[in-house]
Structure formats: C-alpha cells, structure tokens
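My main concern about presentation is that the manuscript never shows what a single data entry looks like. Each protein is reduced to its one-letter sequence and a matching series of backbone shape codes. For the editor and my fellow referees, an illustration may be useful. For illustration, here is how one protein appears when written out as sequence plus structure tokens:
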Amino acid sequence: MKRTIGLLAMLCLMLGNTTWAQASSNTQNTDVEKQKSLWTKLESTIDDIDRNLDGVLGLAIEDLNTGQKFLLRADSVFPQASSIKIAVLAELYHQAQLSAQGTPGKAKLTNLYTMRAADLVPDSDIMGGLTPGVTQITNRDLATMMVAVSDNSATNVLIDRLGMENVNALLDSLGLHNTRLRRKMMDVKAAAEGRENISTPQEMLTLLEEIYQGKVLDKEMTADFLKMLSTHKASFIPRDLPDGLQIANKPGELEAVRNDSGIVFLQNRPYIICVMTTYLVRERDGEEAIAKISAAAYRLFDRLARSSQYGRVISERNSAVPR
C-alpha cells in the first residue's frame, strides 16, 4: 500500500513538473510573441517612412543584447559622405594600438603635426582658423576635429598619415569588402570619376559591432574610441532622443545624400542603428527620415529596457504604490 501511494505521489509530481514546464514554455512563447509584435510595429513605422520618402532608404538596426536585427536594403551600397570617417578613426586607433605593442612606423595618438596652408579644403572650420607653419596639433586633436565638427582638412591629414590602403586593409580584415575609402574629403574630381567613399547599412553595422565587442581593439582602446565617437555633434540619430544619452555616431552629408550610423548606449538595452539615404530630392527629407526612424527604434528599445518579461514597467515615481 505504501509503495502504491509512493508511486502515485511520484506520478503526480512528474505530471505536475510536466504541467509547470509546459506552462513555463507557453509563457516564454507568449513573451516572444509580444516582443515580436513590437518589432512588427517598428517595421510598419519604417515602411511608412520609406514609402513616403522621395529617395532611396536603407538601414540596419541590431539589439546588442539579443542580436535581433531589422534590415532594409541592408546590402545596398550607399555613398557615405562623412560617415566613412568612422573607418578612418578605427584605423587611427588600430595603428595606435599596434604602436603601443611595439610595431614600428605606426601612428600614435600623441604624434605631433604642424598645420600647413596646403592642408586646407572647404568645410574645415577649425583647421582654417589655425596658424600655418606654427600651430602644432596631435593625431588625437585631428581626430577630435574630424568627429566633432567633421573638419575635412583634419580628416585628410589623418588619411595621409595613416595611409588610405591601411584603412581599407583593416576593413578587408573584417570582411567588409563593400566599405571603401577611395578618396579624400572634398575631392570632387575623384568623386566625378566614380571614386566615391561607400558602404552598406549591414557593413557599417558590422564595423561598429566588431568594435563594440572588442574584436578590433583592446578594452582600453575600445573605450577611448567609443568616447571619441561619442563627442557631441550636430547629427540626425540623436535629434529627437533624450538629452544626456551617450551616442557614438557619425553623420554624413552630400548633395542628395544623408546618412548617420552609430551605437546608442541605452541603459540595459544598447543597440546599433545605421540609416542611409540617397537619390534625395530634398536633403531635409532624408534628415527627417533618419530622425523619425531613430526615435521609433528608441521607443522600442527603451520599452524593452524598462519592462519585465510580461511588459510591466515599474517607474521610480510609483514603485512604492502597489496596484
């Protein structure tokens, strides 16, 4: 009799565990479905923006917590304008790391450069105000000017010091064969000949992801790189996002082209967003499209960052009030 009761108890326990496991599995599936619904709504918002844009839009968004992505024309090649400066910055830090490890002939962040009048090209607000033949600046200074105000002369000096072929070799090492630095800034002749600086939304996302995950630079260099790229600047991704949010990004502007690619360091839910537009009738429309997509992506990730697995948000202001 006792053995029969014991067997019945064990059977009940096993059935109970099975029922709990099924319930748990069903709950997890339901949670996945709810989050999938949010991604579907983001897709719908982006589709509306794409449909109403008088131009061509491509983008890649990735949740760095889960690896989930949203892609639209992500393998299409777009002119990069100043967004290609992300690749130049990456090679500067790559060479600085190699130099610190003992490799000769590589650029250091502290290398000095004496500014020359011959360096000046249009859209060089800082370099244009320096004294040729007198003012000395470091590679870090040049990088700061390149990122913060997109100074084209500073960028061109860095390209000369790093070597265009070395920037592309770094990209090749990461498998980014559609991302190319093929001319200096403001080289209209090279652009007219078809030597445009190019990338795809997916490849620019991959470049940022590889850097973020520490696969390009060591921990210290990665942190410094992201801090540099987070320098405050006029750009489209942050336009409608909260003040104080760290965003490591670089926009780009050319006639009929507007781009912005970066990492948004949202607490508990960092993500990468790369949005590119071309064939624009009005550049302002491209800027607004990027800002709208950025705001929609932020709403999704902010909601996921602050919610429980069931979608409940508990804010500090009402955390002490049970309902």
User: Anything to note?
Assistant: The domain at 41-308 is CATH 3.40.710.10 (Beta-lactamase). The chain has nine helices and nine strands.
